[in-house]
Amino acid sequence: MKPTIWITGAGGLIGNYLVQIAPNHAPDFQARGLTRAILELTDFAAVERAFKAEKPAGIIHCAALSRTPECQARPDFARQINVDATRVLAELAADIPFVFFSSDLVFDGERGNYDETAAVNPIMVYAETKVAAEEIVLRNPAHTVIRTSLNAGVSPTRDHAINEQLLLAWRAGKTLRLYNDEFRSPIAAEVTARATWELYKLNRPGVFHLAGSERLSRWQIGSVLLQKHPEFAAQLEAGSRKENTGTPRPPDTSLNCDKIRKLLSFRLPGFTEWMAANPESLRADW
User: Fold this and answer.
1) Helices (H), the chain
2) Which residues contact 233 (CB under 8 A, 6 or more apart)?
3) Nearest Cα residue to 191 out of 76, 282, 85, 84
4) Cβ distance 144 to 100 under 8 Å?
5) How far apart (Å, rounded) are the C-alpha atoms in residues 166 and 226?
6) Which of 207, 93, 96, 84 is nearest to 144 (CA)?
7) What does the alpha-carbon distance between residue 233 and residue 284 come to, in Å, rounded to a whole number?
8) DSSP code for 180
9) Could you give the maximum distance between any two Cα atoms of the chain, in Å?
10) Domains defined along the chain, listed by start
11) Which of 32, 53, 105, 150 is the most exposed place for a label (fewest CB within 10 A)?
């Protein structure tokens, strides 16, 4: 019997890719994808029963309430999912590997190119919940936090990835004003999943940054995607963070990934490079 690894958030983007690629990239494990329909993570008694019954050998925790406006509007709900559920899982996993997915948004974005030693300073509810959850996870010196950035790919519901969200808006006839002064480090979700499995097999605890090797503005990300969808070119405009009246937005949360790069068997590509080399990888968004 292969050891079972729980993958929470398997109905989302990264969790789904972790399950998909496990046979090739983690053949010694049985990836058990957990969706809300299978196990409601905020039903803590049910989570404990399932853990005791299945006795997983490890957990990769991807599930989260990640849409920043919803977190801002429902902070208590965001904390229940992002903090309280993480606490329960981390405590259950006290004696087994536990990997928690966090975000580049834990930083205030005032300087960019953040490495793992940089001080966090969240400026929105979503980021606050991620920082709180990180602190819980890292109380166990054998546990791991992975901070990632915007991920692209094909999710089961076709609305989780950055490319899916932009395309849904364009197809609905919306003109998007994407900021040219807000920077991230976008990455393909399949690359994130492959790197995560490699890190998991190495059983290296601590904090790791895992993102693309290219610093791009929101507007540049949209422009890269338009290379696949030129029919929507008239529906993309450049804007500025100065126009923002909603959820606070950090100007530059680009990540320095040198620490994890030294451990991986492959090079983390830039987003533009990856899109050019993998023209069919987002085929379900057409």
Assistant:
1) 13-25, 44-54, 68-73, 75-79, 85-92, 125-137, 162-171, 189-202, 218-226, 258-261, 271-277
2) 226
3) 282
4) yes
5) 10
6) 207
7) 20
8) S
9) 56
10) 4-158+187-214+255-269 (3.40.50.720)
11) 53
